[in-house]
Amino acid sequence: MKTTERPVPPWAYWLAHAIPFMTLPSGLWRLGLVAGSSMGVTNDAGHPIYLEGTGETIYVIFLSLFSEAVALIAFGLVKPWGEVAPRWIPFIGGRRVNPYAAIVPAVLGALCLIAIWTYGFRDLFTNHFIPFSSPAWKTLMIACYAPLQLWGPALLVLTWAYYRRRVSVPVALVSAR
Length: 177
Description:
Oligomer: single chain
Largest sheet: none
Radius of gyration: 20 Å
């Protein structure tokens, strides 16, 4: 098994593995919509709302799979392929990954996630939030989507650990100079 150039702190390794589980509950909730449930969502008249047509179904499935795939990319911040591109990738395979090629997109992505989910939850405690048929359905939806609030900050912390490992000079080297 290949290892990284410098050891990954155990907490960073754990956090990278936790990130996909932050997106999983919301994806499963959306798949409930695909399965034909309204998941308690209602229109203003109190009638259940269902996905309409193949287009909406495909979109919801794609969104769930895409979210999970993007979350899995966090592994690149703790795995060897985040330091040396896998050989099967055309043009860059086998080459060393410039740390900033991972750091910049990760930071921008984390900041976007924070903005998206802050905006998405802006009306949570007002009457402008999505109408539900019961408080239990609303609680289920919030419980499934709440972990997404952690995704951006977790990615920022994980990126900081990657930066410290790949870019910053170790204290031992500084004191030896």
